Amino acid sequence: AQSVAQPEDQVNVAEGNPLTVKCTYSVSGNPYLFWYVQYPNRGLQFLLKYITGDNLVKGSYGFEAEFNKSQTSFHLKKPSALVSDSALYFCAVNYGNMLTFGGGTRLMVKP
Amino acid sequence: DTGVSQNPRHKITKRGQNVTFRCDPISEHNRLYWYRQTLGQGPEFLTYFQNEAQLEKSRLLSDRFSAERPKGSFSTLEIQRTEQGDSAMYLCASSLGEPNTEAFFGQGTRLTVV
Question: Cβ atoms within 10 A of the Cβ of B96, count?
Fold first, then answer.
């Protein structure tokens, strides 16, 4: 069975600094990996995905993620954080017919 | 609005009552998913449909839960004899069906059982 771990419940970063939100996965075979963001009282919004090919994937709002097969990781990154990036971030793996989500990481960007 | 639509947005019900939620997916999407999310947790898979066929159900989906997608378009999720533990956000999502395609989520229905 597939699983996703987000080891940090919360990440704090100052506006303008780079940010990283960590994700590791466990799945047999080649994974399809996703990042979603959730703002208060909103549904999940798709940010980016890794299917195959280039290990660095670019997505919405300036976010990118780096796939590392040997470390089974798919960390979310952004070079310069904005206060408006503060939200709940979920990593997910699709293997078979459903998305399996991590527990989420709350990103707090302080002015 | 061409996104995934869920109704109602909020539902408060007394323990033991039945509730039904509706999801209207993006029109060209043939897959429809239901997830449950409790506060501070990631969404948990409940069930999914390929067109009108319900192809997979989680063990989380007790016999009090039933989902339908009668014409392969909108879907309903019914919870019978609600319990306080059913209080959660119920999320619907749709996708084009291939595992490498992203799912689009609705805003969810927040259920509170009192």
Answer: 14
B95 DSSP β-pair partners: B31
Long-range (24+ apart) CB contacts under 8 A made by A59-62 are A59/A35, A61/A85
φ and ψ at residue A85, rounded to 5 degrees: -80, -10
Burial of B93 (0-12, 13-18, 19+ CB in 10 A): buried
In a 13 Å sphere around the CA of B71, the CA atoms on its Cβ side amount to 4
Contact between A11 and A87 (Cβ < 8 Å): no
Instruction: Kindly determine whether residue A99 and residue B45, on different chains, have CB atoms separated by under 8 Å.
Output: yes
pLDDT tens track of chain A, all 111 residues? 789 999 999 999 999 999 999 999 998 888 899 999 999 877 899 999 999 888 999 999 999 999 999 999 999 999 999 999 999 999 999 877 788 999 999 999 999
Cα(A59)–Cα(A76) distance, integer angstroms: 10
Q: Is the dihedral of CA B51, B52, B58, B60 positive or negative?
A: positive
Question: Shortest Cα distance from B89 to chain A (angstroms)?
Answer: 10
DSSP state of B14: -
The answer to whether the Cβ–Cβ distance between B106 and A100 falls below 8 Å is: no
